[in-house]
Design a protein that fits this description.
The structure is a homodimer. Chain A is α/β, with parallel strands linked by helices. Chain A contains twelve helices and 13 strands. Chain A has a nine-stranded mixed β-sheet, with helices on both faces. In chain A, strand 11 and strand 12 form a beta hairpin. The longest helix of chain A has 18 residues. Chain A is globular, with a radius of gyration of 18 Å. Chains A and B meet through helix 8, strand 13, helix 10 and helix 12 of A and helix 8, strand 13, helix 10 and helix 12 of B.
């Protein structure tokens, strides 16, 4: 099976109470593809400028990520984001955004990418997401979005959601999109737009999965130190869709739950260090070990009947 | 085994987006004892005035709650709280508080209450909580508190926490008490004050349990309609400690997890209707059915090893 992600490739400057970095490899497509690379073959589609060099390609390629569809813009500069987090680490404060080559991004999928089995539309303008969806034959498509598009391109976003199978969004954004404060109703309404599953990402509280037939939720893996939350949501999506891609076929409830758990595990490693630093040297054994820890942390034994 | 709770007995006036009630039986000790009554014998200690009549006693007694230790103050009026919730139902807004007899409350435990097996110190002034703890021989004591006491009686609260086994507080209050934004560290610091377990109540996100040896968390039972959140935390504590009391002995990890699940189940029924309306007509079968639903909603199957 194979997986393709379309999204941003960036350099990030981040300051948190635990330190700072002036220039790190980042962007939704990068965090996603590194996380997904532990499970399946990943192709990454996104724009870069002249400042994106061999070193950056090497990080992706070292994890087996196929970089053929990275769109190099001659004379351009790569998307740059500068932000910081306060003591509670819950909210990213943006200090500078330089869209650069990302401002004119028109995704072009190679034949191999068009034939990928699973597609992830990371958080980009919903018209672009829809164009990509229409180019790609993926049997399973997931989508992320954000408050900006809900505010400025709501109609387009709703149409785009209609063409995907799984929506992965923050719970506050699901509420904002549907104008429903109750998350169960918000998720049901999003499923009414077309998708068969909705994942509410809940930050430090974990994540919840809504499907037509059921509900599943799991807490975030408990960490004493969260160094940098940047990219956690995309790492979640990478672990989640990466595992689904590796399993093939139509995902059943059991497979979706395991995929949620892998997503949560990848997100937890992501936030332990700055940017991609922890995930870069992660091993599949470490992932499986934490999967099992998280599984046992959430297990409730049946009460024996008298 | 037996269980005693010391806390407020009140009349509540509540308005939510789903309706309003002008005068309902409420208070932390009431919500707790009704929830715990499904599991074990409960004694309730708290002050009431002349307006607390046969009808109110009957609600408690109908559930087997022993009301001998309710302190009737002649010529007094029962604690009254008026509040409302906005559309998102997360925050209670207080419109009026009349402490009445609760303002001079000096808890007196009968011999039977002093010999109870399990004690719950609901959210009252921490000096009073400590006096009660010193009167009571309970092998297991739990405590709730709130931001008011953290701000105005912090030193006393820390001393009181030192005398109990389990702290049950909102996660924001655990952070406030310890001045640690990271919940894992906050819980560890509270355990450093004496308790062997800390429960972080997380509202719509569920609850987390921290012990010396481990971590457990479960989501809230998903509800499409939350009518009135008043008393949810006390119903959680009632289900939790009620189940522990019924099991006897030192609770092991498996028992604590089941108790958390029963707590979550009772809280979920509590919020489905105003005040005690839903819990009043609840049955043990309904509780066990929802326990099993919540258990299956959180189950992750192991990944088979190759």
């Amino acid at each position: 099976m194979s997986l393709v992600v379309v999204g941003s490739i960036a350099f990030d400057a981040v300051r948190t109470p635990f330190g700072e970095r002036e220039r790190m490899l980042g962007g939704s497509a990068v965090h996603f593809s590194l996380a997904a690379s532990f499970f399946d073959e990943v192709r990454v589609v996104g724009p870069v400028g002249d400042d994106f060099g061999d070193e950056e390609y090497a990080v992706l390629q070292h994890h087996g990520v196929i970089t053929d569809d990275i769109q190099h813009v001659d004379g351009g500069r790569t998307f740059f984001w500068r932000g910081h987090y306060e003591y509670d680490l819950n909210t990213a404060h943006t200090d500078d955004t330089q869209l650069n080559v990302f401002g004119d991004f028109a995704p072009r999928l190679s034949e191999a990418s068009k034939q990928a089995d699973v597609l992830f539309l990371a958080n980009i303008q919903p018209d672009l997401q829809r164009e990509v969806r229409e180019q790609c034959q993926a049997r399973l498509a997931g989508l992320d979005s954000m408050n900006l598009w809900i505010e400025t391109a709501r109609h387009s976003l709703v149409r785009t959601i209609g063409g995907v199978d799984i929506v992965l969004m923050n719970d506050a954004e699901l509420r904002m999109l549907t104008e429903r404060p109750n998350l169960v109703r918000a998720a049901r309404e999003v499923m009414g737009m077309g998708p068969t599953a909705v994942i509410a990402k809940q930050g430090e509280y974990g994540a919840a999965l809504f499907t037509q037939s059921g509900f599943f939720a799991l807490p975030a893996y408990p960490l004493e130190t969260v160094v940098d939350p940047t990219g956690a949501g995309d790492s979640f999506a990478g672990g989640f869709l990466g595992y689904l891609a590796s399993q093939g076929g139509e995902p059943d409830d059991l497979t979706l739950r395991r995929a949620m758990t892998y997503g949560s595990v990848l997100a937890s490693f992501n936030v332990e260090e700055f940017g991609t630093e922890r995930v870069r040297r992660l091993t599949r054994d470490e992932i499986d070990e934490r999967f099992e820890q998280l599984r046992s942390m959430t297990t409730i034994e049946e009460v024996p009947t008298a």
